[in-house]
Every structure is written in C-alpha cells, then in structure tokens.
C-alpha cells in the first residue's frame, strides 16, 4: 500500500496502492501499459492544488514531478516546450532567464503547468483566456501506451481536447506553450465600497490590463486589484491612494503567496449575466451565511475560447469564486451558492468544489460529445477513468 496523499487544502485525502514518480517518458509508458494489462486505474497528478477529486484513485497515482524540467526554445521565438511537471513559479523563472513569459497567470503559482492547464486555471483580464489557451502542443502517453505528438501540424484535431483534458486522455509529458517576451507590471490595490466597485466595474475592466476584486461579506467592502504595463496605467482609478503598489516581472507580480489554506467553489458565468448573478449571491451570503463565512468572494474575467471543456468556451466569462477557510465547514454554504450559479448557466471550475456530474455537465458544454469521442479513442480500456472521473464524464 502506498502512502497517504492529500491535496493543498487538506480536504482530499486517500491512499493509493502505489505512488509512482517516473523519471522520463519511457517510464510513464511502462506504467500505462502495465495498468492496461492488469486492468488497474492510473491517475496523473501535479502539485495537488486542486480541491476536486480528479486525481483520487485506489490504484496507481503517477506524479509528474520527476519528469525532466527542461525549457526548449523553438525556431519560432514565441514557442517553448517545457516539462509537464514543472511548477508555475519555477517555470516563470526559467522562462524569464530565456527572455520569455506567459501572457497571463492565475492567483497562485504552486500548480504544475500540466495540472493548471488540464483544469482550466485562469487569471483575469478581458483580453486573456485561461492558461489552457496558451498550450500550442503537447506530448501525451495515451491509454494504449502510444506516445502522441499534438500540435498545429500533427494530430491537430486532438488539440482542443488535449489543451484542457482533466487527465482523462493520457499522461502529458511535455507541453509546448505560446509565449511572449518578458514584461513588467505595476500592481496596485485599493479598498472601496461594493456599490462603487459594481457601478464602475466595466470601466475598470476595460481600462486595465488585468483587474479583479475581492468582496468581503463581513464588512461589505471590496479590495480592487489592477495590473498594468509600466507607464500604461489609466488615469481613472478608485478614490484615494492605493493601499499597496509594487512593480516587477509578470511571473513575480501576478501570483500571490498563500500561507492560509482554503477550499473554494468557482463558477464561470456569461459576462452579461454577472450583475444579476452576483446580486443574488451577495444577498444569500448576507442573509444566510455571513456569520459563518470567514473568507472573501473573488470576481475575475476570462476571454472567450474554443477549447471543448473550457468554462469560457464560446463566451466571454466572468468568474465568481467563494472561498472558505479549510478548517471551517463549507458544505452548506457552497451548496447554496452553487444553486445560484446554475440558474445563470454557470460552468464549474474543474479544479474546485462542485457537485455536477455528467448529466448536468453535458448541457452546458456544446462540444461535450466530441470530447467524449476523443476520450474513448485515446483510452479505449478506460485506464484513466476512475469512479470520480466516470461520474463527471460518463453519461447515465
């Protein structure tokens, strides 16, 4: 029996029969082929930041942390191939040394690049998609043990599935990223009222490269955060001086270090429905959950994309995330707000808490059947389809 594994927040704990850390792609292939021939399940895992049970298995858990963490540049100066298991923080430093950067990042950088893209991790900004949109190609060990090269030139039809795959198609060993030259951002934080923030939200979103806000239920106030290229900050801003200001390379300025652990539910809402949805979420929290909610609500934006299982597929998206300290109960709170998210055609963040199964998910993803066709093609023996993943992906 392997050792107990737990995720970042501690809310997911299980003990796989085996915990493997393959050093290279050949070792990954051997693990997959063995699992196939012995009818056991295999799940790849990154850094374990996710709150959802995507990686839970009684059989073999395969860590990507042992794979090579190289960064290989291409003739195209905007492309680089990186090891699938490299954490985002480490990747940011390696890219910076090579004069490159990801065009956007999420709020934390402890995730592996494969785990972050496989679950649709995102930052904020009207012009920027989630991290999966930066994936231009990959190498994948499928459920048959075959190594597939996926790019604009090879197996192009698989790319919209592989960019955000939930680990259901195979084990990623490398990712090719579409990058930008390094850039520096100025980050500023303000405190404001919820009324002012909502009244000026569209203006703030349009005029800043990146903008989001936290709403604090116990005080009914907000913290507004903006990031802009140096010298390109808009004149319009919240009243008063910012509480904090810092400037630095993008990979050091966008993410934050988190000591306190939390669980989270987040749904992606069509942007045109945001105000109505947020108004109802705020009302429910104030009326029913204010005394028990110790954390804040985070609002961000994400550009439309064409990735089949992306929460931003086919629509400009605003995300609403409800956070709760991991030492406090969250079940009743998350269940209540999830009902509101679903009323507004919300799609859950794959890496965070939610209760939807395949029956509910099929109706909100227009390319659901195409993804399922690719999954069955690449994993015909369901090597990667654990009970938790089957509940998400298998109809009936």
TrEMBL record:
- Annotated coiled-coil positions are none
Family annotation (Pfam families): ALO (PF04030), FAD_binding_4 (PF01565)
- Boundaries of each FAD-binding PCMH-type domain copy? 12-182
Q: Which UniProt keywords apply?
A: Oxidoreductase
Q: Give the Gene3D superfamilies listed for this entry.
A: 3.30.465.10, 3.30.70.2520, Uridine Diphospho-n-acetylenolpyruvylglucosamine Reductase, domain 2, Vanillyl-alcohol Oxidase, Chain A, domain 4
- The superkingdom of the source organism is Bacteria
Question: According to the UniProt record, where is the region Disordered?
Answer: 233-252
Record's InterPro entries?
ALO_C, FAD-bd_PCMH, FAD-bd_PCMH-like_sf, FAD-bd_PCMH_sub1, FAD-bd_PCMH_sub2, FAD_lactone_oxidase-like, Oxid_FAD_bind_N, Vanillyl_alc_oxidase_C-sub2
Q: What is this protein called?
A: Oxidoreductase
Its source organism is Plantactinospora endophytica
